[in-house]
Amino acid sequence: ELDDGLDEAFSRLAESRTNP
Amino acid sequence: SGTGIVTGSYVAPKTVWLHAMKGKGLEISGTFARRSGATFMDLHFTNRALQVMSDFAIQFNRNSFGLAPAAPLQIPTPLAPNQSTEVSLPLNTIGSVMKMEPLNNLQVAVKNNIDVFYFSVVYPLHILFVEDGKMERQMFLATWKDIPNENEAQFQIRDCPPSADAVSNKLQASNIFTVARRTVEGQDMLYQSLKLTNGIWVLAELRMQPGSPSCTLSLRCRAPEVSQFIFQAYEMVLK
Q: Each residue of A1-20: pLDDT tens digit?
Protein backbone atom coordinates (compact mmCIF):
# COMPACT_ATOMS: atom_id res chain seq x y z
CA GLU A 1 0.00 0.00 0.00
CA LEU A 2 1.34 3.41 -0.96
CA ASP A 3 2.13 5.46 2.14
CA ASP A 4 1.47 9.01 1.11
CA GLY A 5 2.01 10.38 4.62
CA LEU A 6 -1.59 11.49 4.85
CA ASP A 7 -2.59 8.80 7.34
CA GLU A 8 0.11 10.05 9.66
CA ALA A 9 -0.89 13.67 9.06
CA PHE A 10 -4.49 12.96 10.09
CA SER A 11 -3.26 11.15 13.21
CA ARG A 12 -1.14 14.18 14.12
CA LEU A 13 -4.10 16.51 13.53
CA ALA A 14 -6.38 14.39 15.73
CA GLU A 15 -3.77 14.21 18.49
CA SER A 16 -3.06 17.93 18.37
CA ARG A 17 -6.76 18.61 18.72
CA THR A 18 -7.12 16.27 21.69
CA ASN A 19 -3.96 17.47 23.45
CA PRO A 20 -3.39 21.01 22.22
CA SER B 1 -36.21 1.03 10.83
CA GLY B 2 -33.52 -0.14 13.21
CA THR B 3 -31.63 -1.86 10.39
CA GLY B 4 -28.98 0.86 10.24
CA ILE B 5 -29.67 1.34 6.54
CA VAL B 6 -29.91 4.98 5.58
CA THR B 7 -31.55 5.94 2.34
CA GLY B 8 -31.59 9.47 1.02
CA SER B 9 -31.12 12.90 2.51
CA TYR B 10 -33.10 13.71 5.65
CA VAL B 11 -36.53 15.26 5.00
CA ALA B 12 -38.30 17.07 7.85
CA PRO B 13 -42.07 16.51 8.26
CA LYS B 14 -44.26 19.08 6.50
CA THR B 15 -45.38 22.07 8.57
CA VAL B 16 -48.07 24.64 7.83
CA TRP B 17 -46.55 27.58 5.93
CA LEU B 18 -49.76 29.41 5.02
CA HIS B 19 -52.75 29.11 7.33
CA ALA B 20 -56.19 29.05 5.72
CA MET B 21 -57.14 32.15 7.74
CA LYS B 22 -54.39 34.14 6.03
CA GLY B 23 -54.80 32.45 2.64
CA LYS B 24 -58.51 33.18 2.21
CA GLY B 25 -59.12 29.47 2.53
CA LEU B 26 -55.91 28.28 0.91
CA GLU B 27 -53.76 26.24 3.29
CA ILE B 28 -50.23 25.30 2.31
CA SER B 29 -47.93 22.99 4.23
CA GLY B 30 -44.53 21.98 3.01
CA THR B 31 -40.99 20.82 3.48
CA PHE B 32 -37.73 20.79 1.53
CA ALA B 33 -35.97 17.72 0.16
CA ARG B 34 -32.91 16.73 -1.81
CA ARG B 35 -33.40 13.72 -4.10
CA SER B 36 -31.12 12.38 -6.84
CA GLY B 37 -28.94 15.46 -6.79
CA ALA B 38 -31.78 17.96 -7.01
CA THR B 39 -33.62 20.16 -4.52
CA PHE B 40 -37.39 20.12 -4.17
CA MET B 41 -40.08 22.02 -2.30
CA ASP B 42 -42.69 19.38 -1.41
CA LEU B 43 -46.04 21.07 -0.95
CA HIS B 44 -49.51 20.10 0.20
CA PHE B 45 -52.31 22.43 -0.90
CA THR B 46 -55.76 22.30 0.71
CA ASN B 47 -58.76 24.35 -0.37
CA ARG B 48 -60.66 25.28 2.81
CA ALA B 49 -62.73 27.94 1.06
CA LEU B 50 -66.28 27.54 -0.24
CA GLN B 51 -65.29 28.29 -3.82
CA VAL B 52 -63.15 26.55 -6.41
CA MET B 53 -59.47 27.55 -6.62
CA SER B 54 -57.53 27.73 -9.88
CA ASP B 55 -54.73 29.57 -11.70
CA PHE B 56 -52.01 28.76 -9.18
CA ALA B 57 -48.50 30.15 -9.56
CA ILE B 58 -45.48 30.54 -7.25
CA GLN B 59 -42.61 32.99 -7.06
CA PHE B 60 -39.65 33.43 -4.68
CA ASN B 61 -38.05 36.65 -3.59
CA ARG B 62 -34.30 36.97 -4.05
CA ASN B 63 -32.48 34.92 -1.40
CA SER B 64 -29.03 34.03 -0.07
CA PHE B 65 -28.41 30.97 -2.26
CA GLY B 66 -30.32 31.94 -5.41
CA LEU B 67 -33.07 29.35 -4.85
CA ALA B 68 -35.76 29.59 -7.54
CA PRO B 69 -38.50 27.35 -8.96
CA ALA B 70 -37.05 25.29 -11.84
CA ALA B 71 -40.51 24.69 -13.33
CA PRO B 72 -43.98 26.22 -13.08
CA LEU B 73 -46.21 25.08 -10.23
CA GLN B 74 -48.24 22.12 -11.56
CA ILE B 75 -51.55 21.99 -9.71
CA PRO B 76 -54.39 20.07 -11.31
CA THR B 77 -57.02 22.77 -11.36
CA PRO B 78 -59.62 23.49 -10.34
CA LEU B 79 -59.15 22.57 -6.70
CA ALA B 80 -62.63 22.00 -5.29
CA PRO B 81 -63.63 22.97 -1.74
CA ASN B 82 -62.14 20.55 0.82
CA GLN B 83 -59.90 19.03 -1.86
CA SER B 84 -56.16 18.56 -1.26
CA THR B 85 -53.29 17.96 -3.61
CA GLU B 86 -49.59 17.20 -3.30
CA VAL B 87 -47.03 18.82 -5.54
CA SER B 88 -43.25 18.56 -5.68
CA LEU B 89 -41.70 21.73 -7.05
CA PRO B 90 -38.17 21.28 -8.44
CA LEU B 91 -35.79 24.07 -7.47
CA ASN B 92 -32.55 25.38 -8.90
CA THR B 93 -29.98 27.75 -7.44
CA ILE B 94 -29.50 30.07 -10.40
CA GLY B 95 -31.91 32.76 -9.20
CA SER B 96 -30.97 36.26 -8.01
CA VAL B 97 -28.88 36.34 -4.86
CA MET B 98 -29.48 38.67 -1.93
CA LYS B 99 -28.23 37.97 1.58
CA MET B 100 -31.20 37.30 3.83
CA GLU B 101 -31.65 37.52 7.60
CA PRO B 102 -31.53 34.79 8.70
CA LEU B 103 -29.36 33.44 5.92
CA ASN B 104 -31.75 30.56 5.16
CA ASN B 105 -34.89 32.68 4.97
CA LEU B 106 -37.05 32.37 1.85
CA GLN B 107 -39.92 34.70 1.00
CA VAL B 108 -42.57 33.03 -1.12
CA ALA B 109 -45.54 34.40 -3.04
CA VAL B 110 -48.35 32.09 -4.16
CA LYS B 111 -51.22 33.29 -6.29
CA ASN B 112 -54.52 31.75 -7.27
CA ASN B 113 -57.78 33.04 -8.74
CA ILE B 114 -58.67 34.65 -5.39
CA ASP B 115 -55.57 36.64 -4.40
CA VAL B 116 -51.80 36.68 -3.93
CA PHE B 117 -50.46 35.37 -0.61
CA TYR B 118 -47.03 35.89 0.93
CA PHE B 119 -45.21 33.84 3.54
CA SER B 120 -41.65 33.24 4.77
CA VAL B 121 -40.00 29.92 5.46
CA VAL B 122 -36.55 28.84 6.57
CA TYR B 123 -34.95 25.91 4.78
CA PRO B 124 -32.45 23.47 6.29
CA LEU B 125 -29.08 24.05 4.68
CA HIS B 126 -28.46 20.36 3.95
CA ILE B 127 -30.80 20.60 0.94
CA LEU B 128 -27.91 22.58 -0.60
CA PHE B 129 -25.18 20.02 0.20
CA VAL B 130 -24.00 18.67 -3.14
CA GLU B 131 -23.16 15.06 -3.96
CA ASP B 132 -19.50 15.78 -4.84
CA GLY B 133 -18.73 17.32 -1.47
CA LYS B 134 -16.06 14.83 -0.43
CA MET B 135 -12.76 16.69 -0.35
CA GLU B 136 -9.50 14.93 -1.21
CA ARG B 137 -7.55 14.10 1.97
CA GLN B 138 -4.50 16.16 1.03
CA MET B 139 -6.68 19.13 0.13
CA PHE B 140 -8.58 18.72 3.42
CA LEU B 141 -5.40 18.90 5.51
CA ALA B 142 -4.09 21.90 3.60
CA THR B 143 -7.41 23.74 3.77
CA TRP B 144 -7.88 22.96 7.47
CA LYS B 145 -4.50 24.56 8.23
CA ASP B 146 -5.10 27.44 5.85
CA ILE B 147 -8.37 28.57 7.44
CA PRO B 148 -7.56 30.80 10.42
CA ASN B 149 -8.42 29.59 13.93
CA GLU B 150 -10.74 32.61 14.32
CA ASN B 151 -12.91 31.09 11.59
CA GLU B 152 -13.52 27.96 13.64
CA ALA B 153 -16.86 27.65 15.38
CA GLN B 154 -17.70 24.99 17.97
CA PHE B 155 -21.07 23.55 18.83
CA GLN B 156 -22.40 20.79 21.07
CA ILE B 157 -24.76 18.27 19.53
CA ARG B 158 -26.84 16.33 22.03
CA ASP B 159 -28.45 12.99 21.26
CA CYS B 160 -25.91 11.81 18.71
CA PRO B 161 -26.23 8.19 17.54
CA PRO B 162 -24.00 6.02 19.74
CA SER B 163 -21.52 4.74 17.15
CA ALA B 164 -19.19 6.60 14.79
CA ASP B 165 -20.30 4.30 11.95
CA ALA B 166 -23.96 5.18 12.49
CA VAL B 167 -23.11 8.89 12.62
CA SER B 168 -21.00 8.69 9.49
CA ASN B 169 -23.63 6.74 7.52
CA LYS B 170 -26.44 9.06 8.56
CA LEU B 171 -24.48 12.16 7.59
CA GLN B 172 -23.28 10.69 4.30
CA ALA B 173 -26.89 10.10 3.25
CA SER B 174 -27.26 13.91 3.48
CA ASN B 175 -24.00 14.59 1.59
CA ILE B 176 -21.75 15.18 4.61
CA PHE B 177 -18.75 12.99 3.86
CA THR B 178 -16.23 11.45 6.23
CA VAL B 179 -12.73 12.08 4.86
CA ALA B 180 -10.80 10.47 7.75
CA ARG B 181 -11.45 8.91 11.10
CA ARG B 182 -9.17 8.60 14.11
CA THR B 183 -9.54 7.38 17.66
CA VAL B 184 -7.52 9.29 20.26
CA GLU B 185 -7.75 8.45 23.95
CA GLY B 186 -11.02 6.61 23.32
CA GLN B 187 -12.60 9.53 21.47
CA ASP B 188 -13.73 8.99 17.90
CA MET B 189 -12.77 11.95 15.71
CA LEU B 190 -14.45 12.23 12.32
CA TYR B 191 -13.01 14.66 9.76
CA GLN B 192 -15.70 15.59 7.31
CA SER B 193 -16.39 17.86 4.37
CA LEU B 194 -19.39 19.22 2.55
CA LYS B 195 -19.89 21.62 -0.32
CA LEU B 196 -22.79 24.01 -0.81
CA THR B 197 -24.43 24.56 -4.18
CA ASN B 198 -22.67 27.94 -4.43
CA GLY B 199 -19.25 26.28 -4.13
CA ILE B 200 -18.56 27.10 -0.47
CA TRP B 201 -16.68 24.28 1.25
CA VAL B 202 -17.13 23.49 4.93
CA LEU B 203 -14.69 21.33 6.90
CA ALA B 204 -15.77 19.66 10.10
CA GLU B 205 -14.37 17.73 13.00
CA LEU B 206 -16.91 15.71 14.94
CA ARG B 207 -15.63 14.49 18.28
CA MET B 208 -17.59 11.76 20.00
CA GLN B 209 -17.21 11.27 23.74
CA PRO B 210 -17.16 7.61 24.77
CA GLY B 211 -20.28 6.72 26.73
CA SER B 212 -21.87 10.13 26.15
CA PRO B 213 -24.71 10.95 23.74
CA SER B 214 -23.24 14.42 23.22
CA CYS B 215 -20.57 15.25 20.63
CA THR B 216 -18.57 18.34 19.73
CA LEU B 217 -18.76 19.78 16.23
CA SER B 218 -15.97 22.11 15.10
CA LEU B 219 -16.54 23.83 11.77
CA ARG B 220 -13.98 25.61 9.60
CA CYS B 221 -15.15 27.63 6.66
CA ARG B 222 -13.96 30.67 4.73
CA ALA B 223 -17.50 32.04 5.04
CA PRO B 224 -18.01 31.59 8.81
CA GLU B 225 -21.49 33.16 8.74
CA VAL B 226 -22.80 29.84 7.40
CA SER B 227 -21.46 27.81 10.36
CA GLN B 228 -24.51 28.31 12.59
CA PHE B 229 -26.76 26.96 9.82
CA ILE B 230 -24.46 24.04 9.09
CA PHE B 231 -24.66 23.14 12.79
CA GLN B 232 -28.46 23.27 12.62
CA ALA B 233 -28.36 20.95 9.60
CA TYR B 234 -26.10 18.48 11.48
CA GLU B 235 -28.50 18.51 14.43
CA MET B 236 -31.49 17.94 12.19
CA VAL B 237 -29.86 15.10 10.24
CA LEU B 238 -28.45 13.36 13.34
CA LYS B 239 -31.64 13.54 15.37
A: 455 789 999 999 999 999 87
Of B138, B185, B189, the CB nearest to A6: B138
Q: Is B68 exposed, middle or buried (0-12, 13-18, 19+ CB in 10 A)?
A: middle
Residue B11 neighbours by CB under 8 Å, 6+ apart: B31, B32, B33, B42
**Residue B7's pLDDT band (cuts 50, 70, 90):** low
Please answer yes or no on whether B182 and A14 come within 8 Å at the CB atom: yes
What does the pLDDT read at residue B239?
A: 87
Is pLDDT at B159 greater than 90 in this prediction? no
For chain B, where are the alpha helices, taking DSSP H only?
Answer: 137-146, 164-173, 227-238
* Distance of residue B165 Cα from the nearest chain A Cα, in angstroms: 18
Residues B8-33 have pLDDT tens digits of 899 999 999 999 999 999 999 999 99
Strand partners for B33: B40
Cis omega (within 30 of 0) on the bond before B72? no
Instruction: Using alpha carbons only, give the angle B115, B121, B126 rounded to the nearest 5 degrees.
Output: 140
